[in-house]
Automatic annotation (TrEMBL):
Full protein name: Shikimate dehydrogenase (NADP(+))
Protein family (similarity comment): Belongs to the shikimate dehydrogenase family.
Binding site for shikimate: S22, L23, T24, T74, N99, D114, Y232, Q260
EC number: 1.1.1.25
Reactions the enzyme catalyzes: shikimate + NADP(+) = 3-dehydroshikimate + NADPH + H(+)
Amino acid sequence: MTDWSARPSFLAGLIGAGIQASLTPAMHEREGAEQGLRLVYRLIDLDGLGLGADALPELLKAAEWMGFGGLNITYPCKQAVIPLLDDLSEDARALGAVNTVVLREGRRVGHNTDRTGFAEGFRRGLPQAPRGRVVQLGAGGAGSAVAHALLQEGVQRLIISDLDASRAAALAEGLCARFGAGRAEACTDLPAAMALADGLVNCSPVGMAKLPGMPLPAGLLRSALWVAEIVYFPIETELLRAARALGCRTLDGGGMAVFQAVGAFRHFTGIAPDAGRMLRHFGELVAGDPAMRAA
């Protein structure tokens, strides 16, 4: 019989809106058990609580009072949380977004594991994908991380489209300052950009179970494109289904979901998780839930 009382304990959570379907708790708790921890992971759903991002100061303080050692942060809080932190990692500072907060010794330190999470999934899922011109939809917190990852992975020109044109322009300007003039630009003509693109990455929330649909007209897709998603609920979005029907190479959001969790687990606990084991567990969770598999 396992003596759970003898195991080190850890309390973590996720703050975001509409997160009840998240697989993050299951991934962290299973890996914690495999590592000999009594790890408990709780969802703090803004929608369920009837709160907005303006409640973050109170939620962070409450988490500290209750003994949380770490928090993951997702939409719509990845940028709003920054002024509430004591320090930022180099990645979080460069990206202007935080998805992981370590609470330790009265200090709040923000990290970002989205960039490395997407990069690892991209390398594994789309090896040798052409990297000349790529269109990215979405310039929010996750979009910033993915854009940095794409340029670091060798994309020569990144065209960024967002419903907020000024946000796309600001992200492109920051990327050019870091990676060189001309490496990124805000999109002004999506059909023209798609006609010249090698690949497409959706970093917008469109395609999620709570926001179904296509993030761009299906007629802009063509078989020569590769198409990547960061949405993982469902694992097959309408965009991926349309792209696969045309014969495009595709990448679902599962890899980013797992590898950002790998990084967060390491920050939270100081223990290196088994990434392969977490990937297998994620696959089991998706296979066991029909709602995960299709839009």
